[in-house]
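> forwarded from #structure-qc
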């Protein structure tokens, strides 16, 4: 069970901390066929099959995926794919299956962060919060939107789609070229993201800190600024201690580990339930 730091609980209770969710959160979702949304690796494998990558290119793609060079694998897979085929792929992977929000989404909503950032293309957290309907206390913004700063200052909870959304397939970020392009075209977004992750405590959930999504975002933010208050990343036990120390040294990120020997991630669910309880206790004290 995760031993949640008191300072993190207090930050979350005061709604000063940001929650950052990755594909691991959506992996708990299911549809009527008992299927889950694909993670990065599964998405790339699906794409290589759909776009008929074969021969030496397929061998290279598989090698890149196996060693974790997912951005480079994506660059090869999507290089010659036309836009219509890309749209069909994303519909098949994220829209048509009609996945339902899972317990992770429900527990995160109970934590009730003022700002949640996600690299997920799906709309599962938005559906959980009923954020797809205006006026329900949530605002959803993509990296292409120009009014994020106004929304940060508003009373509504803000959901930031850092890699785009399935509703705008032409703006999904997948490859190294995509990252380069959006840095050029959406510089203001990255300035805001830099500021948010510099001044706020961040709790990463469902994010592998070796994923290219997170690595590139960390490289583009100044979250290693000197502070006595670290950021936190929740991960299943198994990562080498040297890598945990490197995350602390490079980005001031503390790794909070949980047991997942049976592969069910049940301890993560129990830990998040305990976190909600601790936050509610702190809130009740603050109200008195």
């Amino acid at each position: 069970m995760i031993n949640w730091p008191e300072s993190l609980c207090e930050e979350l209770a005061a709604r000063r901390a940001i929650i950052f969710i990755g594909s691991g959160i959506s992996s708990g979702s299911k549809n009527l066929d008992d299927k889950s949304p694909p993670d990065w690796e599964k998405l790339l494998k699906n794409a290589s099959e759909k776009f008929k990558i074969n021969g030496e290119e397929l061998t290279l793609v598989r090698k890149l995926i196996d060693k974790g060079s997912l951005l480079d694998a994506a660059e090869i897979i999507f290089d010659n794919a036309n836009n219509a085929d890309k749209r069909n792929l994303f519909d098949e992977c994220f829209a048509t299956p009609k996945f339902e929000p899972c317990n992770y989404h429900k527990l995160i909503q109970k934590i009730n962060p003022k700002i949640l950032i996600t690299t997920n293309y799906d709309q599962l957290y938005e559906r959980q919060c009923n954020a797809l309907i205006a006026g329900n206390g949530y605002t959803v913004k993509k990296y292409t939107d120009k009014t994020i700063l106004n929304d940060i200052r508003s009373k509504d909870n803000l959901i930031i789609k850092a890699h785009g959304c399935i509703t705008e397939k032409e703006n999904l970020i997948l490859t190294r070229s995509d990252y380069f392009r959006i840095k050029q075209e959406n510089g203001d977004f990255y300035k805001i993201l830099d500021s948010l992750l510099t001044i706020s405590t961040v709790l990463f959930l469902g994010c592998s800190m070796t994923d290219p999504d997170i690595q590139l975002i960390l490289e583009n933010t100044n979250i290693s600024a000197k502070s006595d208050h670290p950021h936190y990343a929740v991960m299943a036990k198994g990562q080498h201690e040297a890598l945990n120390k490197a995350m602390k040294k490079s980005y001031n990120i503390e790794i909070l580990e949980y047991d997942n020997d049976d592969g069910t991630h049940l301890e993560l669910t129990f830990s998040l339930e305990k976190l909600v309880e601790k936050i509610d206790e702190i809130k009740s004290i603050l109200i008195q």
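QC bot note: The beta strands are 18-21, 115-118, 138-142, 157-161, 202-205, 231-236, 253-258. The chain has 14 helices and seven strands.
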